[in-house]
Amino acid sequence: MKHESMTRRGLRAISLAVVVGLGTGSAMAAGAVNPDADEILRAMSNFIGNAKAFSVAADISNEVITQEGQKLQFNSSATAVVERPSHLYVTRHGGFVDAQMFFDGKLLTIFGKNANAYAQKPIAGTLDDALVALESGLGISLPGGDLLIANPYAVLSSGITSSGYYGTEIVGGVESHHLAFRTAKVDWQLWVKAGAEPLPMKYVITTKFMTGAPQYSVQFSNWNLKPAIAANQFTFVAPKGALKLDTIPVDETGEISMKQGSK
Description:
This protein is α+β, with helices and mostly antiparallel strands. The protein contains five helices and twelve strands. The protein has two domains: 1-30; 32-244, outer membrane lipoprotein receptor (LolB), chain A. Helices cover 21% and strands 38% of the residues. Strand 1 and strand 2 (71-83) form a beta hairpin.
C-alpha cells in the first residue's frame, strides 16, 4: 500500500509537470549542473561584462516575513547607467527610499532626495571596487549588483550545487531562457533574453531556509547598449541646503535609510 501511494504521488507529479509545460527531464535534473544553464549563464556574463556602457531600468520586489509570520512584499523601481571601467549612476524610488548614487572612479556619493542629505566615501578604482565597497564595506544592498561587474559568471557560479534549464518563457514581452540554480543557502533563478543579445531580464533569489522562504526579485527593462551619457552624469553637485552626513545610514535589510528629517 505504501509503495502504491508513492507511485500515485509520482504519477501526479509527472502529470503536473506535463500540464505546466515542463519536460520531466528538466524538472528532475536538480541533482547536477545542467550544461545548457551553465552555457547560457556564461554567455550572459560575457555579453554584459564586455559591454562598454549601458543603461537599464528595473522593478524590484523584496519580501519580508513579520514576527507574526505574515509575508509582505515591498516594491520599488530603479535605473542604472554604467560606463566601464569606473562610472556608475543609480536611482532608486519606492515607499521607503528616494535616492541617487554617483560613482566617478574616485568618490562614491549617495543622496537622499526626501531628506535633502548626502554622504560620501572616497573609493579609487573600478566599478567592481565600488560595488564591493557598497555591499561588503557599507552593507548596502544594490539590486542586481552582481550582474553589473566585469565578470558576473565568477560571482554567480560560486557555490552552485545544481542547476536546471526550463526552456523559454516570456518576460516583459521578451522571449527569455529560464535558468534555475541552487546553493547551500539560497536558490536563485535567472531569465536571459534569447537570441544575439543574452541580457538578463529577471533575477529572483529565494532564501530557502528562512521561515516563509522570502524572495528578492528584480525585473529588468529598457536595456540600452548605446546610451547617451551627459558629461556630468556621474558627478554629484550638492543641492542648495543639502545636509552632508558623516556616514551612510543603512537599515537592517541593507536599504539606504535617508528619510525626511534624517540628521
